UniProtKB/TrEMBL annotation:
EC number: 2.7.7.8
UniProt keyword terms in alphabetical order: Nucleotidyltransferase, RNA-binding, Transferase
GO molecular function: polyribonucleotide nucleotidyltransferase activity; RNA binding
InterPro entries noted in UniProt: ExoRNase_PH_dom1, ExoRNase_PH_dom2, ExoRNase_PH_dom2_sf, NA-bd_OB-fold, PNPase, PNPase/RNase_PH_dom_sf, PNPase_PH_RNA-bd_bac/org-type, PNPase_PH_RNA-bd_sf
Protein name per Swiss-Prot or TrEMBL: polyribonucleotide nucleotidyltransferase
Region (Disordered) location: 789-810, 825-901
Annotated S1 motif domain residues: 686-754
Main enzyme class: transferase
Family: Belongs to the polyribonucleotide nucleotidyltransferase family.
One Pfam family of this chain: RNase_PH
Species for this entry: Urochloa decumbens
Biased composition (Low complexity): 858-868
């Protein structure tokens, strides 16, 4: 009680309100105490606190915007909001895709090199599509192939417009800020870079317009989306100034020259719509152009160098016997001799520009000779192709290989086939996620007799390889018809002009050599241009088109126009130029000589190889595609590496499909065997499987196969010869090749070993040299066999074209139920031997051990209509059928007329379930079938008798016959032969 009171008191004490007392006066010696109220305290604190900082002002970013429309889509240039410190920065937008382009120049007023060090860096970061990179560091790595290619599309039309002698370092950086996945940002980036240069203080003779043109169902589409490009047979990227063409890049599906000209003219008229908005934007927000030092040689120095070098250079160029390196050595000697004379005169200004001046003299000499005399350096005519050499199957061990030479240019192309899982993964913002066809171009230093270090991805190598890849992609078979991943390697062995077009020719032959069913050959040739410009107007006054240009003609000429295609049309184009534009009419004129040269090369390639080779067992890989459910693939995903190590095959898994690629057929068979054993396949009757014996019973063995499933191998299916004890033949763990022959009444899969073995020929057959009887795997159930007398019954067998009769399989359902050995044991114990006498008429014959078998006498026979002679011996022979003996090896003695009567004495306890080989009984004809009889025994059980070939006799339903049990079929039904 006292504890309860104490608890109540404590509770009341906690509830009492506490009084807040004023603070005690502060006792200070010699001072009076002061009591401050709460309001006074707050006022004092506010007075002591520092003054609050002023609120930040609102910054206004002055931006300028210009909009225009092409192909029904609105495009906008905007500047002033982002990247304000750059020399020039522009954000271009089309729908929800935004691209930023910036330009910056080196601060030094002195050029650092004797050429234009222009760098274009195009970047596609994953944030533009709302994705975190999947790399280990979750950062974008080195530039991808697509980024390098987009950088080339920007670089090629911009570079020719810089002033002559401007050698200051310039860098253009392009970032994709956002992407809706509909528009390819590359064309937008090129236009934005042009606008950024117009806004900057860098001297540049722009602007340019860039546009993409597609074609669907014969109709041209301006700036098509990515989905529309998938349906288009043309992907044309066209860049131009107001009146001249600067760059062309084409991927097509055999478009004709006439249609391509129409597409280019449309592209030019639409691309110039991008020019005026840039000019207006530069007037509103552009910087004044800065005075940069231009590195130009003086006229006096140039004339001195020209006087010293022109005559010997002309002598070298007029001698067509010079090879590439011999000509180069002769020109280098001329340069060194001029240098020595200038050093004697101490002419520093001329020495500074010696290499550029000599190169200019070379250009003028060779161009004048081509235009005025129509003669080329190597003595060819203007439209003549160099000598060709074609060779396929260069290295037979490879999947495909070819060697192609045009003049001194030589390329070795090889083809490697792989599984669909070997396709290249693409992490680009637009386009497909993978690429199944790859062409990798390699330009080693020895191909031009130089020493250099090998680095990573080279912009030139990626560009040339992609051009050849586009050219060959048009003739590849569809992915559904040819699911391989294809990699072509183009190794340049010697270079003297247009190695990319040589890669197209060599790659086409290598694809055919690999057995890839390409529709026809693709060839490529490079066309050049040498022109004279009117100094007063700046227009081209005279020009010559050169077919199949040399490396020197490429360097000293005005353009490198690479055109690849088939006889039907063009598949790829790449145009690079050196002057500030070429009229479109001249470019269109260049298509015809390129077509003629291409057909000449195609004729020579067809002479070497014109159709795809048949797959060679020694070199061509094998590819198999298997389909499984997702659950069944879990085991394979875990053991895939182990299967590859054990077999040497490549196994790839994707979307429920397993693809196996192997070098040879034995490797393929081994890999498929391991995959099917691990995963399992849908079971088919008549198909052979490999399995492992898991348990042995008296009546047979249970075999594990097909990914853990079980089947029953009955003792009667072990061999064509009788087997007394199954343990004498099989052991647990033994691996067997078995054929599925059906399913028994218990639901077990029935397997057969003897069905995979050749059937032995009997002595009678050997003597007559007759053909072996056709092998049959069991009979169908007796109840399911159609009657011969039924008018509407369909035949139970089919015929091949050669007339061979084929019996239907015992079990035709492909998917079956698997019963385990334990289930079968439990069912055997439940039924017992006594119940087996009442089994349905179509049930399999139960197995009995030899010591359990009862001695069976022959059933009581009624008088049969078959006549039996008592004065002659009657030899009972088994028919020439493929009867299946199951047990017992005792021989059946010959019967004479005296003991035939004893065979007709039937025992009282006759039971068909205990019948064994050699038993002679009397049976009635129950049904007459197309290939035999259905016989009914005295206890109601049924058996069968198969007609011999051309040995059918007349029988009647109900007729009694004396028959002998010669075998049992796959379902345990006894098969009888007639006793004469």
């Amino acid at each position: 009680m006292s504890m309860a009171v104490a608890s109540s008191l404590r509770s009341l004490a906690r509830r009492r309100p506490r009084l807040r007392l004023p603070a005690a006066p502060l006792a200070v010696p010699g001072a009076r105490a002061a009591f401050l109220s709460g309001a006074a305290e707050e006022a004092a604190a506010d007075a002591a606190a520092p003054a609050a900082p002023p609120a930040p002002g609102r910054k206004v970013l002055e931006s300028f915007r210009e909009e225009f429309e092409i192909g029904g889509r609105t495009i906008a240039f905007e500047t002033g909001k982002i990247a304000r410190f750059a020399n020039g920065s522009v954000v271009i937008s089309m729908e929800d895709t935004h691209v930023l382009s910036t330009v910056a120049a080196a601060k030094s007023s002195e050029p650092v090199r004797d050429f234009l060090p222009l760098t274009v860096d195009y970047q596609e970061k994953q944030y533009a599509q709302g994705i975190i990179p999947t790399t280990y560091m979750r950062r974008e790595g080195a530039p991808k192939e697509r980024e390098l290619l987009c950088g080339r599309i920007i670089d090629r039309p911009i570079r020719p417009l810089f002033p002559r002698g401007f050698y200051h370092e310039v860098q253009i950086t392009v970032n994709v800020l956002s992407s809706d996945g509909k528009q390819d940002p590359d064309v937008m980036a090129a236009n934005a870079s042009s606008a950024a240069l117009m806004l900057s203080d860098i001297p540049w003779n722009g602007p340019i317009g860039v546009i993409r043109v597609g074609r669907i169902d014969g109709n041209f589409i301006l700036n098509p989306t990515v989905d529309e490009l998938g349906l288009s047979d043309l992907n044309l990227v066209y860049a131009c100034s107001r009146d001249k063409t600067l760059m062309i890049d084409v991927q097509a599906r055999e478009i004709t020259e006439r249609d391509l000209q129409a597409g280019m003219k449309l592209a030019h008229s639409e691309a110039i719509k991008c020019i005026d908005p840039q000019i207006r934007l530069a007037k509103r927000a552009g910087k004044e152009k800065k005075e940069y030092k231009i590195s130009l040689i003086s006229d006096t120095s140039y004339e001195k160098i020209r006087t010293l070098s022109e005559a010997p250079i002309q002598e070298v160029f007029t001698d067509s016997s010079y090879g590439k390196f011999e000509r180069g050595e002769a020109l280098e000697k001329i340069t060194q001799s001029v240098k020595a004379k200038l050093e004697e005169e101490n002419d520093e200004d001329s020495l500074k520009f010696l290499s550029k001046a000599v190169d200019t003299v070379r250009k003028q000499v060779i161009r004048k000779r081509i235009i005025e005399e129509g003669l080329r350096v190597d003595g060819r005519q203007l439209d003549e192709v160099r000598p060709l050499y074609c060779e396929s199957n260069t290295y037979p061990v490879l999947h495909g290989s070819a060697l192609f030479s045009r003049g001194d240019t030589q390329v070795l192309c090889t083809v490697t086939l792989g599984a669909p899982g070997d396709a290249q993964r693409l992490d680009s913002l637009v386009g497909p996620p993978t690429k199944r066809f790859m062409l990798h171009y390699s330009f080693p230093p020895f191909s031009i007799n130089e020493v250099a270090k090998r680095g990573g991805l080279n912009r030139r190598e990626v560009g040339h390889g992609t051009l050849a890849e586009k050219a060959l992609l048009a003739v590849l078979p569809p992915e559904n018809d040819f699911p391989y991943t294809v990699r072509v390697n183009s190794e340049v062995m010697a270079s003297d002009g247009s190695t990319s077009m040589a890669s197209v020719c060599g790659g086409s032959m290598a694809l055919m050599d690999a057995g890839i069913p390409v529709r026809e050959h693709v060839a490529g040739v490079s066309v050049g241009l040498v022109s004279q410009v009117d100094p007063t107007t700046g227009d081209i006054s005279n020009y010559r088109i050169l077919t199949d240009i040399l490396g020197l003609e490429d360097h000293l000429g005005d353009m490198d126009f690479k055109i690849a295609g088939t006889r039907k049309g063009i598949t790829a184009i790449q145009l690079d130029i050196k002057p500030a534009g070429i009229p479109l009419d001249i470019i269109c004129e260049s298509l015809e000589p390129a077509r003629k040269a291409r057909n000449q090369i195609l004729d020579r390639m067809d002479q070497e190889i014109s159709t795809a080779r048949a797959i060679n067992d020694g070199s061509a890989p094998r590819l198999a595609t298997l389909s499984f459910s997702s659950d069944a693939l879990r085991k394979l995903l875990f053991h895939r590496k182990k299967i590859e190590q054990e077999t040497g095959a490549r196994v790839s898994v994707s979307d429920g499909t397993v693809t196996i690629v192997a070098k040879t057929q034995p490797i393929m068979d081994k890999a498929i065997e391991k995959v099917e054993f691990l995963v399992g396949r849908e079971i088919e009757v008549g198909r052979t499987y490999k399995g492992t014996v898991s348990s042995i019973k008296e009546y047979g063995a249970f075999v594990e196969f097909n990914g853990g499933q079980q089947g029953l191998l009955h003792i009667s299916e072990l061999s064509h010869e009788p087997v007394a004890k199954i343990s004498d033949v099989l052991t647990v763990g033994q691996v067997l090749s078995l054929m599925c022959i059906g399913q028994d009444v218990r639901g077990n899969i029935k397997l057969s070993l003897k069905a995979t073995l050749p059937q032995p020929r009997k002595k009678k057959d050997l003597e007559s040299n007759g053909p072996l009887p056709s092998q049959e795997v069991g009979w169908a159930a007796v109840e399911n066999m159609p009657s011969l007398g039924a008018a509407d019954a369909e035949p139970s067998s089919s015929k091949h074209e050669d007339g061979t009769i084929v019996e239907p399989p015992a079990f035709s359902t492909p998917s079956v139920i698997i019963r385990s050995a334990a289930d079968c044991d439990a069912q055997d114990a439940a039924t017992g031997p006594k119940k087996r006498a009442k089994v349905a008429k179509s049930s399999p014959r139960p197995y009995k051990a030899p010591h359990e078998r009862q001695e069976v006498r022959t059933a009581t026979a009624k008088k049969t209509p078959v006549a039996t002679k008592k004065t002659k011996k009657v030899k009972i022979e088994e028919p020439e059928s493929n009867s299946l003996e199951t047990s017992g090896s005792e021989e059946v003695p010959e019967h004479t007329a005296s003991n035939t009567e004893d065979l007709k004495q039937s025992p009282v306890n006759f039971w068909s379930g205990s019948m064994k080989l050699g038993d002679v009984v009397t049976a009635k004809v129950y049904q007459i079938r197309a290939f035999g009889l259905v016989l009914e025994l005295s206890d109601g059980a049924r058996g069968m008798h198969k007609f011999e070939v051309n040995g059918r006799k007349e029988f009647e339903v109900g007729q009694e016959l004396l028959v002998k049990c010669s075998s049992f079929n796959a379902k345990g039904i006894p098969v009888f032969s007639l006793v004469d």
